[in-house]
Structures
1.
Amino acid sequence: MSDALEKAEAAAKEAAVDTAAVQLAFAAMELAKLAQPQPTAQPHTCQHQHRPGRSTGEWIGISCAVCIGSIGIAFASIAIAIAIGGISVAILALVLRSMWRDFHKTR
């Protein structure tokens, strides 16, 4: 039981590290935005504003953040699965022990 809890704690710590990595990826995206040349002011001939497309650096930053986030979610899911399995085994052991005691009391 304690082994499962230790594994769950380790997975939770690793997910926390992954969260820090996601924050670093967002910081890299912000730096990529700042490195882009600023557009010069042009007179507007139309009434609506055009949104510029995303740069390559932004797409790379987004993809890194998504990959790191998905790895964190995967580790968290594994930790939850291990914890649920440990709880199930503990409940099974308690039920079997109770049945064993009841069986030996009737003899």
2.
Amino acid sequence: MLTTLTEVLKTAEASGSAIPAFNIDNIEGTEAIMEAAEAEHWPVILTVGQGAIQAGQLKHLARLVQDIAAGSTVPVVLHLDHGISYEQTVQCLRLGFTSVMYDGSHHPFAENVEESRMVVRSAHAVGVSVECELGAISGVEDGIFHKTVNLVDVDEVRRFVAQVNCDALAVGIGNAHGMYQGTPKFDFNRLEACRQLHTPPLVLHGGSGTPDDMIRKAIQLGIRKVNVATELRMAFMDGLEATVGSRDFYAMYRQAKAGMTAVARQKIHLMRNGESLPPD
């Protein structure tokens, strides 16, 4: 069933857990994630990122998620990831997205507030949820590169939530897109300070490669949505590479899907239950 980000975050808030947001790029990857969500009986956020949009997949993926959600037994959110402009978010509203993220974190604070408020007004008018961001997330994802200190200003968080009625807020606490070089260092004190400001549900981007204990602690301190992209794509590519010698097209995709489903199940189980999935 297709639903909004607001609705699934209510589930996370009530249970002290988090909802995974997985970037999708093709049919097989989307199906792999949904198999994991159905197996774990937990909501999932399917996010369309800028890489997929640049590849011309926006309309195709929107229709794909809508079709899959119509037959699912778990809530599914169709979400725009790191929307680059007001105009892009409106395009997604017209395509039936149930959630959009406007990322104005790399703009001056006042401009971020102004643009975010425009997105919120338009999205809320048609019942769509909005995620915003403060503290630009560093690293590379979908060809977009930001190199910043990536520590959100807690006072800016206070001022932002007083002016922008968003439904979720991504904050920079030392997290980064892509795979980390070594163990990431999250500023959990900063995260706790943000949560004490009675913010909307908080979002952690850059979940790929983050140790389980750090994910658990982030959730305990108020993170309610965790984004994962690179780790899933790597699992998919590993599956393709492991079977490429067979030159069996369908076997390659079966292996790729199986690897991605396994990683997605691990992430979902961790975010829902706070523990790793037991081995089969």
3.
Amino acid sequence: MENDVAALLARHTEALALFTARVHAVQADQWDDPTPCTEWSVRDLVNHLTAEQLWVPALVSDGASIADVGDSYDGDVLGDNPRATWDAAARAARRAFGAEGALEQTVQLSYGETPAVSYCAQMVTDAVVHGWDLSRAIGADERLPDALVHFALDEVTPYAADLADSGLFAPPIEPPPGDSPQTRLLALLGRRA
């Protein structure tokens, strides 16, 4: 279990670093550009991931529920300095998940009680996939680190078919023949590489 937790925390740190690098690569004139997430601009995408990081200390460190936090992180959380806001939120999320015993507990998510390890794994996958979205949107290198791709693929494969039903994801698409693990991951989440 200890090795599993260490590996999960390593993937979490790597996923946040990937997304951080992309946030810092956004040019001043790109914040309003579209992303593969059809409803979101670059700023909207970064705002979404930042808000998700802001939830982590409340849910993991403080034991708060969704109802306790309420709408605190709705709307624009980026303010005037999106990069600094992202950096602070990512650091706080990393600290919360990395605290002793944090991943041994249960957290209250919108769909009920969830092991913190599962929550952390979902956050890794979200940062990886949205890291690709942001890369595509700003013209950065779209190659994702192999370890993160394999982690996210293992995480999302069992429930990928149900994600489109949530309304938050596009339906899976058929990947091309001879596809790579990254292409399969993106296809499972309705993205064309």
4.
Amino acid sequence: MINWKVILNIAKTHLITKMKSTITAALGVTFGIGAYITLVSFMTGLNQMLDDLVLNQTPHIHIYNEIEPSKEQPISRYDDFKGALNIVHSIKPKQGQKKIHNAIPILNHLKADKKVKGATPQLRAQIFYLSGSIELGGNLAGIDIMEEVRLSNMQSYIIQGSPAALKNNENGILLGAGVADKMSLSPGDRVQVSTTKGAIFPLKIVGIYQSGIAEIDNVQSYANLKTVQRILGEPENYVTDINVKLYDIALAEPMSNQLERQFDLKATDINEANAQFETGSNIRNLITYSVSITLLIVAGFGIYNILNMLIYEKMKDIAILKATGFSGVDVQLIFMSQAMIIGGIGGTLGLAIGYLLSTLIDNLAFETEALPTITTYPINYNITYYLIGISFALVSTFIAGYLPSNKAKHIDPVRIIRGT
């Protein structure tokens, strides 16, 4: 029967008498795990921030009525003209195609679906911003601001003002940060917007919106849906876009295909809309995990080398233990226990150092005009990374201890004592 008390006492004595080697081995584990935790927390936090920057502003499914030429020209419907040369062709689509017909029933249908977290109507309009002698082209989107806040985290991109200020002001506008800078405007000021038909409407700036993407901020602004409908002279059921958020993003693609067939509308899922971005995100994650795994493997080889040398230094001790009645299994367990103690202590210290470094990075100031709502470097404190770290520390030290201790198990004590 294995006497664990004796085995652990001998293992402890070996570790204490060779304190320098013990500390070196433990530090190898500590810095390997610490570097892994710090790197993976920072890189995944950064990737998550970049993903959120795009995905928060992209609906899982975007439904709209795509303007395209008529598939069948009117003249081709007359049998009398079959085989004749058609002079009249390429009839242009009607302007009314921008509108989603039966938008309200479609919205109600989507909101009743248990897979749908929310569906919001939008009305997009091309406008001109007028302020004194300055005239800039841009886009004005009519939205349900409180639903956008609930579904798309929109409040994070409002750097001045508040969502409630827009909701409570029928003539309010959330002006894009790029537009505001170019026209020297701020909340409380008024800006005139002109439609493509020439109608001019004064709106009060109740907030500044900044997405962090300059191309958007230089043209995009938001107002209440009813406000934009009134500016365009359209009825309350006039909607050009419907944005859908799902509980499970994986359902976006099949559901978008179903909605296209069901309502004869164009439905673009988030993967199709952000195919390039998704590829970049996957590559960044691959690099992050590759570097992290490399760090752990390097730490594992360091542990193996140190324990291997430790066992060779303890050859005479091993011979004496065997000569006094310890079996090969007992000797192996002694060195395996040393390895696991080093792994446990080093891994725990590594997690602590990784957490402290991550916290330090998380509190470093991160100032950029493109992302004013983000004030510190992003860190992902996912508990999974810590579990992976301590698991690898224990597994790697187990393997690193097993291989040399297995050699020690078969050592012939007589040859060692004789010096042969």
